[in-house]
């Protein structure tokens, strides 16, 4: 069964919604029109003006909105890149290098919110904490959103993922031209094993194609995380898949099919923190001949 025929939201609730109901009631969306974004925090965020290293030899003005708990940290950093702005790749690569210093990047995949493109990360820190991160170079600024589950206290992974997934850019802007978006379609499809027919069929519906592209990339991150034993990375990848399913306008598939059932078992296992159960469910998606995971 082809992955694009399955809509994940009919399988299980998005994984970033399985936090304790009482705690969930304290979450509230905050809007920042000047910076063109909205995000949900579990409490009123603290604002701090600081500097941000966009390269080894350059620091710029930055503003940080943050909330700290005993088991988790939630932070949005907006760094003013200045004029002229450094190349996007250099800014994002330096941010990833800084964020992962002393730790290990478990997931690093393309990400998109509305028409703003960036990177999505899962990082295992040296102290045992795990960070869910998204990075965007947009409107002359670097947007860095981090949800960190600390090694101490109760597991804050669900809240960290929920926080990062709540980011929304407003104003309908984009950091890609129409030509760049079109040019990226064959690359995405080729990277995930799709064919020319897929690209041609999606040409009349760019929105659906981009969702499908990101879904394939997130599925690859899910497989990679499960194979490497990274529970937090797998939860983040599955949360992305659930979010993308809500944006997909494709037809509903049979939720009782073998592929849908396997994905449901993966989601249920991840929701309960059962890494072995999720890995076992993944094994049912492998092709008998080559042992490789089925692609979305």
Q: Could you characterize what this model shows?
A:
The protein is an alpha+beta fold and 296 residues long. It has 2 domains: 3-14 and 176-283, no CATH class; 19-169, Mog1/PsbP, alpha/beta/alpha sandwich (Protein Transport Mog1p, Chain A), CATH 3.40.1000. 37% of the residues lie in helices and 27% in strands. The chain is built from 9 helices and 10 strands. The chain has helices spanning 21-24, 88-99, 157-165, 178-191, 196-202, 206-228, 231-247, 258-271, 275-283, and strands at residues 28-32, 37-41, 46-55, 58-68, 72-80, 104-113, 116-124, 130-138, 141-149, 168-169. The strands form 2 sheets. It has a 7-stranded antiparallel β-sheet. Strands 1-2-10 form a 3-stranded antiparallel β-sheet. A hairpin with a 5-residue loop joins β7 (116-124) and β8 (130-138). The protein is globular, with a radius of gyration of 19 Å. The N and C termini lie close together (9 Å). The model is unreliable at 1-23, 190-204 and 288-292 (pLDDT under 50).
Question: Could you list some keywords that capture this structure?
Answer:
single chain, 296 residues, alpha+beta, Protein Transport Mog1p, Chain A, 2 domains, seven-stranded antiparallel sheet, three-stranded antiparallel sheet
């Amino acid at each position: 069964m082809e992955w694009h025929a399955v809509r994940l939201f009919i399988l299980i609730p998005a994984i970033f919604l399985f936090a304790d109901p009482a705690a969930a009631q304290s979450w509230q969306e905050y809007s920042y029109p000047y910076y063109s974004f909205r995000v949900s925090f579990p409490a009123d965020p603290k604002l701090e003006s600081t500097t941000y290293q966009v390269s080894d030899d350059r620091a710029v003005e930055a503003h940080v909105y943050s909330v700290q708990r005993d088991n988790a940290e939630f932070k949005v950093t907006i760094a003013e890149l200045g004029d002229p702005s450094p190349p996007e790749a250099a800014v994002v690569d330096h941010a990833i290098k800084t964020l992962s210093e002393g730790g290990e990047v478990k997931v690093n995949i393309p990400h998109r919110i509305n028409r703003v493109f960036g990177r999505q990360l899962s990082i295992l820190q040296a102290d045992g904490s795990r960070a869910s991160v998204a990075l965007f170079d947009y409107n002359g600024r670097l947007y860095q959103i981090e949800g960190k589950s600390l090694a101490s206290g109760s597991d804050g992974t669900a809240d960290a993922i929920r926080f990062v997934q709540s980011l929304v850019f407003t104003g309908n802007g984009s950091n890609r031209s129409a030509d760049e978006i079109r040019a990226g379609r064959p690359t995405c499809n080729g990277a995930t094993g799709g064919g020319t027919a897929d690209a041609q069929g999606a040409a009349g519906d760019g929105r659906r194609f981009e969702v499908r592209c990101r879904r394939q990339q997130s599925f690859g991150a899910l497989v990679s995380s499960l194979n490497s034993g990274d529970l937090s990375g797998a939860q983040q990848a599955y949360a992305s898949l659930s979010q993308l399913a809500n944006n997909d306008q494709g037809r509903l598939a049979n939720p009782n099919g073998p592929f849908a059932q396997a994905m449901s078992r993966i989601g249920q296992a991840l929701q309960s923190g059962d890494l072995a159960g999720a890995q076992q469910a993944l094994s049912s998606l492998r092709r008998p001949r080559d042992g490789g995971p089925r692609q979305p």
